[in-house]
Amino acid sequence: MHLRDTPGLTFDDVLLVPRRSSVASRSAVNIAARLTRRLTLAIPIVSANMDTVTEAPMAIAIARLGGLGAIHRFMSAERQAAEVARVKRAESHIVEAPATLPPGASVQTAREQMAASQIGGLLVVDAAGHLLGLVTTRDVLFAPDPLAPVESVMTTRERLVTAPAGIDLESARQQLHAHRVEKLPLLLPDGRVAGLITAQDIIKLARHPHAAKDSKGRLRVAAAVGARADDLVRAELCASTGTDVLVVDIAHGHSEHAIRMVQTLKRSFPHLDVIAGNVASADGVRALAEAGADAVKVGVGPGSICITRQVTGFGVPQLTAILDCAAAARELDVPLVADGGVRNGGDLTKALAAGASTVMLGSLLAGTEESPGASVIRDGRRYKVVRGMASLTANVDRQALDKPGQLDDDDWEKVVPEGVEAVVPYRGRAADVLHQLVGGLRSGLSYAGAACLADLQANAEFLRITPAGIRESGPHDVQTL
Ligand code: XMP
Question: Both 129 and 233 in a single domain?
């Protein structure tokens, strides 16, 4: 037995001491951050791989702003891979495998396919992939016979503007403008379809200048996996639909099976970055980094919906966990993702100042429009559901995925939850929440005299405060409106 007698600290236990600053304005600071050994993000924020936080809509929203979403794994591997695909299709310079139809497909099929994939046009191709025409929502909207073949309503090949595969973005933009069209099919010399450029995609590029993008202009996304044998299949499926990052998501990440999983994933998918966790000690960081992890996730028990510390007695208050882990992370040059417990811009700034490169958010984003959680109305106010992934219902739902229709009362009773089900106030769009957080962080950098996150870490002086200091730090002696 060993008793470490320095206290474990969390965000509220400390403040950062203001320093002389030459930062003229909040917009002058750079908050770009290393997500992994190879990837950087324009904002240091990752949305949590929880089933009430991140599916495709959240991942799209956060990647557009320069962060990253981690698609949760509490669904079939096929569905998770499809969520990844949705993110990858949301934006790109080029749609590499545009949706197609054979000429004999019915108008009704075209309508259904466009609605299901939320796209406005389908390329009509022959069996070998040669372009025959284009059918758009306008072509099928009022078509009187739903069973008529699409070739009877499509714009035919001769009337379409096309471009050779490999055309650069600027030339494509000029073509779209010159012909006043919205879709530019890209063709190989023999007339087979090689891709599609759309006006919408080009407009989106300009709208989100800081978006996290891969080399093809698609939004970046991460996918969470566990450490069971079938998680390799899950990883393979998500890799096949284009995930950029795999997140090995294990409550106790400093464990043999997590380490083995990281080694296996790095061997199997050397082109993908692997974030692994969760740990709360320098040894945990070392173990995962030496196994090949490209970033390590820190946090055992700080999450808003976590009861791991109460149920097991284990955990490290999050600020101390980050400080401890940061020492090892610096030695091994591996970025840290601080996961859990962040409630506002102040916590975000403290987590980064203590040594994290990025921060993962759960319940703060669970209340937004883009989260998959259900909405509930209480006393006339709107809330959204958030639940721990080790909560009772999440455990049972996971078992139901493994053995559909076979759960009985025993299965409920056997669960020892380490998380809770809860609600959070509805908070509007994720972009608005992130705007507030990022604004706080930018302001924090100016208080630190820091032009970038590395300066913030170098300049940070933490001061422990007392309960009176904590009280003084919030609104006090007034009635807030
Ligand atoms: P916040 O505070 O942002 O935390 O809501 C999100 C993080 O909490 C972790 N998490 C859990 N931890 N039991 C736990 O002990 C759970 O059931 C649970 N579910 C999520 C996770 O690391 C997440 O990113």
Answer: no
Per-residue pLDDT at 164: 94
Point out the ligand 1 atom lying closest to the alpha carbon of residue 419.
17
Distance, CA 327 to ligand 1 centroid (Å)? 24
Q: For residue 341, which atom of ligand 1 is closest to its CA?
A: 2
The Cα 89–Cα 93 span in angstroms is 10
Q: Is residue 480 part of a domain?
A: no
Q: Do 165 and 234 lie in a common domain?
A: no
Give CA–CA dist 75/85, Å, rounded. 15
Residues 20 and 105 in one domain: no
Task: Indicate the residue type of 394.
Answer: A
Asked if the structure places residue 477 within a domain, the reply is no
How many whole angstroms from 434 Cα to the centroid of ligand 1? 19
- Are 157 and 231 in the same domain? no
Task: Please give the number of the atom of ligand 1 that sits closest to the Cα of 418.
Answer: 13
- Ligand 1 close to Cβ of residue 372 (< 6 A): no
Instruction: Give the number of domains in the chain.
Output: 2
Closest CA to 292 of 276, 305, 315: 276
Same domain, 54 and 104: no
108, two tokens: 């009704």
User: By three-state DSSP, how is residue 409 classified?
Assistant: helix
> Residue 410 C-alpha to ligand 1 middle, in angstroms?
26
pLDDT of residue 136: 94
Residue at a domain's end among 174, 207, 240? 207
**Per-residue confidence (pLDDT) for residue 408, from 0 to 100:** 76
Same domain, 239 and 340: yes
Whether residue 301 has its Cβ less than 6 Å from ligand 1? yes
Cα angle 469, 476, 472; round to 5: 10
**Whether residue 306 lies in the annotated active site:** yes
| pTM, to two decimals | 0.86
* Positions in the chain whose pLDDT score sits under 70: none
Q: How confident is the model at residue 433, as a pLDDT?
A: 97
**pLDDT number for residue 92:** 77
Q: Is 87 in the pocket of ligand 1 (CB under 6 A)?
A: no
Query: Is residue 302 located within the same domain as residue 434?
Result: yes
Q: Taking the alpha carbons of 60, 63, 67, 69 in that order, is the dihedral positive or negative?
A: positive
